[in-house]
Amino acid sequence: MIDNPCNDFRGPADPVQEPDIEIIIPTYNRCDDLRVLVHRIIVDVLEAGLGSIVLTISDNWSTDGTAALLEQVVTSHSFIRVVRPACHLHTAEENLAFAVAGAKGRFLWLFGDDDILEPGAIVRMRTVLHDQAPDLVVVNPRVLRHGDQSVIHHLLPMRAASLMLTIEQLVVSIGFMGLMACFSTTIVRRARIQGADWGGVIGRAAIYAHVALYLDCLRDARCLLLNEPLVTVRLGSTSLREFQRLAALSEKPVFEPWIGGIPRHFAALAAQRRIASDLLSRVVEYDHLGRFDLARFLLNRVCEQITLWLENDRSGQLLDLPLLHGLAPAVAGGELGPREALRHLVEAQTLAWALDEDGPAHGIYAADVIPLLSTAERDELFAATADWARGCFDRAMDSYRPLTVWDADIITGLRSLVDILAVVAGDRRNNVESQTPDHALATFLRGLPALHSDRLRDLFRDAVRRRVEAARELIDLRRDMADSIAVWPVQGGYRRGRVGCVHLAVRADHRLTPAQLADLNQIDPAGQVPWVLVADNAPALDALIAAQPPALWPAADGEQLGGWTLGTWLGRQIAVPAGAAGPDADLCLTADDRPALRRLVLKAAREARSEYAQLPAARAALAPVGSAVAADYFDAAWYVTTYPDWAADMAPTNPGQEFLTRGSALGRSPGIWFEESWYRSAYTLVEDGIREGAWISGFHHWLALGRRLNLSPLFWFDADFYLSTYPDVIRTLESGRYVSAFDHFRQEGVRQGLRPFALFDAQWYVNAYREVQEAAVSGMPPFEYFLRAGAAAGHDVGPGFSSQTYLAVNRDVAKSVADGHVPSALYHWWRFGRFEARRGARSLLDS
Fold first, then answer.
1. Can you give the pTM of this predicted structure?
2. How confident is the model at residue 839 (pLDDT cuts 50, 70, 90)?
3. Residue 585 neighbours by CB distance under 10 Å
4. For labeling, which of 212, 468, 798, 801 is most exposed (least CB within 10 Å)?
5. Alpha-carbon distance 318 to 468, whole Å?
6. Three-state DSSP class for 800?
7. Contact, 260 vs 206, CB < 8 A?
8. Using alpha carbons only, what angle is made at residue 594 by residues 592 and 571, rounded to the nearest 5 degrees?
């Protein structure tokens, strides 16, 4: 029968009897798909002779021929009924809620009108419901992509025939959007959901409202995950190009239902203490391409939405900032990448809103936006504004005449100019006067001439684009399991993490095999003791780890260095203080390789010495300085050339005597093997000692103490790198043959072609420059030539760096080099760029 709106239930036999299963299909304008589905259900019911089965179709006032189809089937089969709401409803969720409200079946099988029921599925489901008595069943379906091309026979990678889980475990394991969001995969006990507040949930967010309802109503329920493809579902494959088309037509964000609706559901349920507050951050989704984190998916959608706004320039497509802030709980407890991505996206969205005409309504003012810009972006903004301001001032000055008074318009214009420049400079950011519509960024730009306004708009749009690109690089939507495990924290020799509802521990020294990785990708992975441990909760995992045999320490390859024992332990390079019983998280040092570990140990050992960090101890530790040692560093020809005024205001004397009596105290270097200015800046205690009179110069400190501390006397020499790369040098120093790493390098290493710092490759350098080859023929080592001439000439020193590429990518550095503010591209990279994560360090051929 057709009810309009829904009337009392009429079953196939006894209208009072409660049917075992009621299949509910909400539909709208999918007549062809619905015809196939209804035919499948009729065949399944009739061939099996099933009783106590009802099919309810809720037609949301379709206009495509659905009404005629339904009239035909309801007349032919008494177990089918059709209901319609009083008027057309806006969403499928509302139509589903309407149908459930009038349902009478003990279990409700919610079915999508474009999905397919597999033969024998109803018989099998009735058996499962009778034998296992669940409150909710979710089946593992077959999947058809758009166009009916089968891509996978089981959507979920699962080993067990079935799993009985809690509702939170189920959502975390298989996804909030995936299986749970497909109507056709869920069968639920009617008594659990029929009296629920569907209207309140839909009012919060219509998208996936029934899944949020399950999380609320089934907290203590038995939820069965059945590894049988009883249904085939169609997954849409809307491409980004299609979203671009929709965005070009739309006046609202096309991704907003995902970005906003899902976090709103989780936030509301967490506030009511229905779910754990961190649940969203743990949800793993599956589709035909594999697994992905729900939180990363939402961030990816934000990237796509802002990109669509950049392409279509429609203010209505901008996302609300509170909506983005609502994503913070989803990434708060996770890895750094998503947190940083969200920060970039909030900045991007703030800049985008500031460009919009509605900026004042959102409290985004020009002075509030400036601090969000990077130094380079701010410099570009100031330059563009200054060009405009300079033109305004020049025009005003052109109109000035002696003994005349400027027009009131000119005076007003100059006052406005000063006011705008103050806003751009951020001087009035906290001034209430600046928070007026006149100081909104959009209003400010609108007041500029078109040429300057367009230039600044492009600047801000580029800033938005850069932040979206930076966020996209951090999201990494579909990570390989091995990559995920690699960033898990190490505790007790195991890398620990959670995948879905499962707690995993992978021993840190174990390289996972392809078979083990495939198993860990399952919803229900198997533990392979002692390498891979699996548990349902953290305490159980702790107990499993504690039961494993301990790894022995010290390791067989133990190495002693600076009061530390170095070795390989559980696959990690680790160093602990000598004499320690074993690794301790608070005491040990770890690194990816042994040279890097040695560098950490050398740094820690040096910083632990009081004469390195404390001036009184340093003063007491000074050793006498022999004139022969000082003379070994002095280069008279270089000194006279570098300091042509060395003899000014002095009686004739030799350069060496002048350096010792005056030049060193003036901050001059003795030659190419010691850089006074760099040494003072690199070690702050040196400058303090000079002020206090403990030593007269950095060179004095180096000879009297710095050598024994293995400090680096040159910018282009890294003592820790040298010792960690060539450990035999450490043993040479321990024998007393040399005082410092640099002494060894000057006497032996420079002629052996050893690296003074990581980038320098002596053989490459000789082959790259003819003048270096000629110098080498005459007996000058490549590194000495670099110090005497190559560094000033801007030479590259190895295959790991290309000055040409670096300057092409970093235009600000190129300008600084051209203006003489920075000696060379290599200098900038080695001192600043590598710590700023600058791009372009490697040559184009290497990249």
1. 0.62
2. confident
3. 10
4. 798
5. 14
6. coil
7. no
8. 50
Matching residue, tokens 């950049």: 310
Cβ-contact 213, 156 below 8 angstroms = no
Q: How far is C-alpha 472 from the geometric centre of its chain's CA atoms?
A: 8
pLDDT, tens digit, for every residue of 130-185?
A: 999 999 999 999 887 655 555 677 888 888 999 999 999 999 999 898 767 777 99
The total of other beta-carbon atoms located within 10 Å of residue 571's CB is: 15
pLDDT higher than 50, residue 217:
yes
Judge contact between 101 and 194, C-beta under 8 A: yes
Q: Is the per-residue pLDDT at 424 higher than 80?
A: no
Among 192, 182, 174, CA closest to 291 = 174
Tokens 């493809």, residue? 229
- C-alpha separations of 132 from 128, 166, 297 in Å: 6, 15, 35
For residue 430, pLDDT beyond 70: no
In angstroms, rounded to a whole number, what is the distance separating the alpha carbons of residues 476 and 457? 30
Give phi and psi for 312, each to the nearest 5.
-105, -20
* 159 within 8 A of 526, measured Cβ to Cβ: yes
DSSP at 143: E
If you write DSSP's letter for every residue of 676-692 in order, what string do you get?
Answer: HHHHHHH-HHHHHHHHH
Cβ contact 346:427 at 8 Å: no
Above 80 in pLDDT, residue 55? yes
For CA atoms 377, 380, 385, 389, the dihedral sign is positive
Is 376 in contact with 460 (CB distance < 8 Å)? no
Summarize pLDDT for 467-491 with one digit per residue, the tens: 999 999 888 877 778 888 888 888 8
Sequence-distant contacts of 818-824: CB under 8 A, at least 24 apart: 823/791, 823/792, 823/794, 824/791, 824/792, 824/794, 824/795
Residue-wise pLDDT for 240-286, tens only, equals 676 677 777 777 888 888 888 899 999 999 999 999 888 888 898 88
DSSP state of 440: B
Cα–Cα distance between 626 and 620 in angstroms, integer?
A: 18
- The string of pLDDT tens digits covering residues 114-124 is 898 999 999 99
pLDDT beyond 80 at 502: yes
Distance CA 302, CA 346 (A): 10
- Asked if residue 357 lies in contact with residue 316, where contact means CB atoms within 8 angstroms, the answer is no
DSSP 13: S
Please, what is the angle between helix 66-76 and helix 31-47, to 10°?
A: 10
Contact 454, 367 (CB under 8 A): no
Please tell me the distance from the alpha carbon of residue 104 to that of residue 22, in angstroms, as a whole number: 7
The four Cα atoms 390, 391, 396, 401 give a dihedral, to 10 degrees, of: 90
Return d(Cα 467, Cα 324) in angstroms, integer: 14
Identify the H or E element spanning 743: helix 741-744
Choose among 361, 147, 374, 169: nearest CA to 838: 374
What angle (nearest 5°) sits at the alpha carbon of residue 714, between those of residues 708 and 719?
A: 50
Residues written for the chain: 847
Structural tokens at position 580: 């320690």
pLDDT of residue 652: 56
Output the 3-class SS for 602-635. HHHHHHCCHHHHCHHHHHHHCCCCCHHHHHHHCC
Distance CA 116, CA 454 (A): 54
Place of tokens 């304008």: 29
Residue type for 683, please?
Answer: Y
